[in-house]
Design brief:
Elements (H helix, E strand, L loop, with lengths): L5 H11 L3 H8 L15 H5 L4 H26 L5 H20 L12 H11 L1 H18 L2 H20 L2 H26 L1
Helix pairs in contact: 1-5, 2-4, 4-5, 4-6, 5-6, 5-9, 6-7, 7-8, 8-9
């Protein structure tokens, strides 16, 4: 990738680092979500506080910080390259948002699991993939009533949806990487909840 993209990637990382779980909790005078439940600064853990508004604001903020920057990147790149190349460049760039969310500089590199942010990114890249993932998430949640199980099921299928809708090997590899990030972040959360 071109060196001139590094400033953009740094900005994306900083955007990803914005801790909406902490911000919404402070606005609602709630405890720091890193001090209870899974200790994860994400919407699901904020919901454990019992405040649905704070959880919704966290979900919205984490989703939009993935959606809006990628929509902007895609609109800027659109006229210069093919749609597949645009998606590939934008998806690769989105990993800096994910890294910021999962390892935020503002929280000593201890961040969220990246589910909501990934959903925002994927809806921006291709709504067909976003809606397919959301359908799986909802179906699994209706059956098991566990958000983590729903996320793991949805992101297990992500590479298959990407391959089906886009048929590009590089983008599919990015989807596999995206799913691995989600799975690795969930392992530590499961361990904390068991203890």
């Amino acid at each position: 990738m071109a060196p001139e993209l590094w400033p953009i990637w740094l900005i994306l990382y900083l955007i990803g680092s914005i801790p909406f779980a902490i911000i919404s909790s402070k606005l609602m005078n709630l405890p720091d979500p890193r001090t209870y439940g899974s200790n994860n600064p994400g919407a699901t853990n904020v919901l454990r506080s019992g405040n649905k508004t704070a959880a919704f604001l966290t979900l919205l903020g984490d989703s939009l910080k993935g959606f809006i920057p990628i929509m902007l990147i895609m609109s800027i790149v659109e006229s210069d390259v093919s749609m597949i190349t645009n998606i590939a460049v934008s998806y690769f760039s989105s990993f800096f948002i994910l890294l910021g969310h999962m390892f935020p500089i503002f929280l000593k590199f201890k961040g969220g699991k990246g589910v909501a942010t990934s959903f925002g990114i994927l809806f921006a890249l291709d709504p067909r993939i976003g809606f397919s993932l959301l359908a799986i998430w909802l179906l699994v949640f209706i059956i098991f009533r566990v958000s983590a199980t729903s996320a793991l099921a949805a992101f297990f299928l992500l590479p298959f949806f990407v391959a089906f809708f886009l048929g590009d090997n590089f983008i599919t590899i990015l989807a596999v990487t995206n799913s691995l990030f989600i799975y690795l972040k969930h392992i530590s959360s499961f361990a904390k909840l068991k203890n």
